Each structure stands twice: as C-alpha cells, then as structure tokens.
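INFO  loader      accepted 1 record
INFO  loader      residues=434
INFO  predictor   begin
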Amino acid sequence: MDAVISAPVAAHGDFAADAAAFSAYWRGVREQLDKHPTETLKLAAREARFLFLRTHAHTLYDRLTDGRRKFVRVERLVYDAADIVPGLVPTRAEVAAESELRQSEKEGREVDQGILCNQFLADPACGLHLCHTMLLPREESADALAKFLRDGRLDLGTAKVERQGKAVVLLLSNPRFLNSEDLSTQSATEIGADVCILDPHSQVAVLRGDFVPEGKYAGRRVFNAGINLTHLYYGKIPFMWFPIRDMGFVNKLMRGLARPDVAPDEVSGDSIEKLWISAVDTFAIGGGCQILLATDFNIAARDAYMTLPARKEGIIPAMANLRLARFIGDRMARQAIMYERRFECDSTEGRLICDEVVEPDAIDRTIDHVVERLTGSGVVGAIGNRRALRLAAEPLDLFRRYAALYAREQAYCHFSPALIANLEHHWNAPNRRA
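INFO  predictor   done
INFO  writer      dumping tokens
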C-alpha cells in the first residue's frame, strides 16, 4: 500500500505519456483500495487527479470537443473523459453500481467528476465553452416544441407547459414530493424551459408549481420544495445532478438560450430570451428560493415564505452564494445560508426578493396584470435592459468561475458523512418512504 502512495507520479507535459503514467498509478491505487480501503489512498489519488488536470485539462477538453468545435454536455463529458484517461473519473458502469446504494454506503467515486468539472471550468476558454454548451437547447427540445405548437400544451411528466394569453407557463409537477426537484424532474424542467423560451407565440414565461392533490397542502399549489431530500438520503441523486441543473435549467432562466455560432456573453452574444415571472404559492424552499434569484419578476402569496436550509442539508445552495447578497445584502445572505434564517414573503426582507406580494386568491389576477405591464410597450427594450442588468451584476465569466468552485465543493459535500448526519437529524430521513 505504501509503495503505491509514494510511487513517483508527476506531470511532465506530454499528454499521452502523462495519461499512461497516471492511469497506471490510479489502477494500482484501485487494486489497493479493493483490498484495503483507506482515506489516505483516496486522498492521494485525488491529489494526483488535480496534478494531472492542472497540466492537461485544456488539452483533454479539446480532445473531447474536437478543439471546441463540438458541443458536448457536461453529463456526457465526464464519461467520455473516463474512456480517454482511465482512472481519472469513474466509468458509467462504476457510477451505475454505486447508484444502487444509499448515500451513506457509497465510496464517493463521483467526487472525481467534481474535480474534473472544476478544472474544466477553471480554464477560461474551456469553461466558457462548457457554459455555452449547457445554454444550448437540449436535443429533445425540438420535438417537444413541435408537439407543443401542435397541441397547445405539453406534458413532460414532472413538468408541464401551457399557454395563457401572451404568456407561456411552465408548471413544476412532482406532487408526491411537494414539487421538489430530483432525478425524475431534471430533464423535464430543462426541456420545458427550452420550449417556453423558443415558443414563438408568447412574449413572457411564467414558472409556477402545480396543484398538490393530497396531504397537508391538498388542493393548493406549491412552488418548489427544493431538492428531494428523501431521494438524496437514499442515494438516488447523483453528483452530476447539481452542475446539470444549475448550468442548464436555472442558468437558462437567467440567461436564455445560446446560439451555437455565437458566444453567449452579454456583449458579443445574441441569446434567445424571454422575461421570466415566478409565482410562489405556499413556499419556495432551497432550490425554489434559488430560482427566485434568477427570474425577472417574482409574485408571492402573502402567507408564503422562503428558506435556504443548506446547513441542515449539508450542501451548498447552488448559485445562492453568488446571487443572494445582491438582493438582501451580505449579512442577511449569510444568515439565510449559514444560520437558516427564514424570510416571510410579506416582510421588508422578503419584498427585496418578491416584487408583488398579494392575497393567495389574487395570484392568478396578478400574473395577468404583470404580464400586461411587461408586454404593454413590447419586450424588445425589456430584453435589452435584462441583458444590461445581467452584465453589470453577473457576467458569464463570473458565473464560470463560481461554477468551478461550486463543482468542487459540492462534490465534497455530497459525499460527506455530515450530509447523512444532517438528513437523519433534521429530516428524519430513515423513516421516510423513497
């Protein structure tokens, strides 16, 4: 075991030679881990991955994307990399095997995917290209749009799209789990967002939660209960769920859709955009609150509230650390993220995030009113102002740098023993049905 740890492994600058040498090293470590799993071995292998990628991330990314002429989404990129440099990241089969286990039983091989994403995003050229890739419409969205244009509505299972006058509405629909987000909702919500943005017969998009048919909130709409903590505890949410969500679905709400032939930055780019209205019935917890920081106008019921219970979950609340302080200031943002401060929508602090706070039975009327206000003078100027405000607050390169940090830190959090302890203590996860 000690021989493997102390084996000289260094990056000399030649990609092929270094890839062969590091792969041999990781193969030796894997053999030792299969016999005697230790944290020392895991950490040594991860340090070697950082060393290899700090030298070769740019070259590897160019090989995977044909010199950045091809757009390869991040969820495919991590597995293509496993083929080119064995041992650098887990294979699809290795991740599939671990997906059968509870989160507490997993070895944590997906941490290496976080390291890879971190190093790709840390490189300005590769990172911006990857951000561009994730802002393109998904391949499935063309057929989904055609179906929506034909039928006037679209049912994607855990997300639905319908048109209401000048607005196109995306409904989050995972009612058994209070419209929380998990693996079953991921592609549906992103395809739904693509369809909303591309729909030529609407001027504004609305994001809202669907009705919940039973339980405490029976008959009421629920906006978003955040990540599905039960699925998280039972190991049903892979690490890649996090970068896919926030570089795809949520970033599209904020930046629109990119075109393949133009960089998606605000200065030289030419994105396809709509203004987004979020309508919060009941609550916006975790990921739901994060979404409110990416949409253009937020409507909330007077009895609704917002929380970012990241500390109780043991994870990073996605892009909230990047965005929340712009709305409520640094000190209150720290209180929300680090100390679980709850914000009533109908409060001084809540109104810094929510633009209109109304009686619960007035939300539908308020949506119609806001849509008319936003479209009354045309939306061309509004989109231009949206881009200008975004450039001043969060240019794409700032997002790229934050996403690099997020990929690394969230990977460590996702496989931390503290995450399991938090879910058992605060969520009573062992007694919930997956």
